Amino acid sequence: MHVHVNAAVSADGKLSSRQREQIAISGDEDFARMETIRAEADAVVVGVGTVLTDDPSLERHDESIGSEPPARVVADSRGRTPTDADILAGDRPTYLLVSAAAPEQRRRALERAGATVVVAGEDRVDLPEAFDELTTHGVSHLMVEGGGELIFSLFADELVDELTVYVGSMIIGGRGAPTLADGDGFVDEFPTLKLRDVSRLDDGVVLAYDA
Ligand SMILES: NC(=O)C1=CN([C@@H]2O[C@H](COP(=O)(O)OP(=O)(O)OC[C@H]3O[C@@H](n4cnc5c(N)ncnc54)[C@H](O)[C@@H]3O)[C@@H](O)[C@H]2O)C=CC1
Ligand SMILES: Nc1nc(O)c(N)c(N[C@@H]2O[C@H](COP(=O)(O)O)[C@@H](O)[C@H]2O)n1
After folding, report:
1. Every domain of the chain and the residues it spans
2. What is the predicted ipTM?
3. With a threshold of 0.95, does the pTM exceed it?
4. Can you tell me which atom of ligand 2 is nearest the CA of 58?
């Protein structure tokens, strides 16, 4: 499976503010670029932290791009996704990746709301195992939109093939504000990237890396 992480950060590396509400860091051109990456993907994944704060639809907003809208995926160890979340609306498949710690009642509620529940891992979603399961559902190109906890785990599990980051011209600040890769952080054996391209967009830059 090809895994492409795409996100937007402020000039000081934040995904959002300490209040964790959604902030438009991207301008119109970068949101359009994000749409083209969504259109190339078989599925788009976010962590449940992003579902709880942003309630994204992961819709293709511009229907002229691409043919088949991507499926939606949430990494959600305990099945905390609300059953009325936008990510469950409509007919496209939604895969809820949960761990064995997700209460049976929550799993059933999410299935009733239309999700396909994939169990992988004991206490936390085992991402390599869950992604293997997604390939059996036809997902060979996966876009990751965030947030920082999920992105860190993907680097820790060496699952990332490609990273594109829009760096917007604003400062958000705050030691508790999410960054591109949060989690426990690396103290050695830092993942290294190969810079492939740098381009100006809106009032910022897009950095494209191979991982
Ligand atoms: N600027 C941007 O491009 C984007 C910004 N965001 C922002 O990111 C913030 C949310 O990010 P986070 O709080 O970091 O949450 P997150 O979206 O990364 O979700 C983390 C949650 O995912 C679940 N999870 C299951 N298995 C996991 C695993 N193996 N590794 C890691 N997590 C796993 C856990 O319940 C964990 O708490 C929000 O403020 C949102 O607005 C989110 C997406 C894009
Ligand atoms: N690429 C990007 N730039 C920003 O400035 C952002 N705030 C985000 N946030 C993420 O975009 C997604 C929006 O989803 P919907 O269009 O509502 O489906 C979602 O993943 C946000 O967290 N991204």
Report:
1. 2-210
2. 0.98
3. yes
4. 18
Q: Which ligand is nearest to the CA of 74?
A: 1
Give the C-alpha separation, 15 to 7, whole Å: 8
Within 6 A (CB) of ligand 2 lie: 7-8, 22-26, 34, 46, 50, 54, 56-59, 145-146
Residue 25 corresponds to which tokens in the numbers above?
Answer: 């860091």
pLDDT digits (tens, 9 = 90+) for 66-119: 677 899 999 999 999 999 999 999 989 999 999 999 999 999 999 999 999 999
- Residues touching ligand 1 (Cβ under 6 Å) are 7-8, 15-16, 20, 22, 25, 46-50, 53-54, 75-77, 124-125, 127, 145-150, 153, 178, 182
Architecture of domain 2-210: 3-Layer(aba) Sandwich (3.40)
Residue 204 corresponds to which amino acid?
G
Which residues does 68 contact at the CB level (< 8 Å), separation at least 6?
A: none
